[in-house]
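<context>
A single protein, sequence plus fold
<sample>
Here is the protein in question:
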Amino acid sequence: MPRGPAALAAAALFLAFVSPLCALTVALFSARGLHHLVLVLVAAPALALAFPLRLPFARIGGFLGLSLFLWLWHLPAAYTLAWNSHAAYWLMQAGLLGSGFAFWSSVFRVERPAERVASVGLVLALAGQMGLIGAILTFSPRLLYLQHLGATEAYGLGALADQQLAGLIMWVPGMLPLALIGARLLRRGWREASAA
């Protein structure tokens, strides 16, 4: 077990579920967005490096599962369900982390150039989805998550501005880890092709 990735995964899970960030997600939707980025772009890849899954169909299954949970978390009705039900909340969190773990395990475990190209394509597809969700949140003229109405003012933000900030967090800083991972995969593929 690689110690670095395992320690990073533990730190990310601590940040997401034990640190003040977790409590802050009740007040700020932008904190919820950051919380999800920590799960999907730090904890899940680190877990995949430390404890790689070797499941059939993990690449496409992980991608589809992660896509499903990303969109579910951002549908107002599903968000309300998770807000009102502890079971739904933890199911959504487990789904996001578990599908992310499967996705990143398959992305990092590539053996042939064609698999590497497919993995880079899926990372780009994930980036596209996250960018689209971020843009929807940033440019929506109305508040989509009424649960945060009245809770954001203590932090100097209106609820709509908080939602827009969440979109920007997902759209801009959220793309950086994806770009780094995609570039690293492409670099490794380039080296392998040059050596062949």
